[in-house]
User: Fold this.
Amino acid sequence: MAESKKEQEKEEFGEENTDCRDNNRYLILHNDDYHTFDYVIDCLVDICKLDDVQAEQCTYIVHFKGKCDIKKGSYDFLRPFKEALSLKGLKVTID
Assistant:
């Protein structure tokens, strides 16, 4: 039995990418002067499931540029990541 196009997209891209109406939002990590690089990297790995290299690169970008987008998707997809990172004391927004 053939899968529908939507089911194929879910399988290929993940649930969060099947509805393109609101998938153009970004989870933005903002710089602060309180947390160590290692702490931020650990949070990004544990919560956002970035690999070590991605987390380190994002942390350096935040340090030097003031902010970095760390995930893209719908608001509903990004909200749990924002809440979890906020609970860790990190400054994050969804734009």
The two ends are 40 Å apart (CA to CA). The helical segments are 5-13, 37-48, 52-65, 75-87. Residues 18-94 form a domain with the Ribosomal Protein L30; Chain: A, fold (CATH 3.30.1390.10).
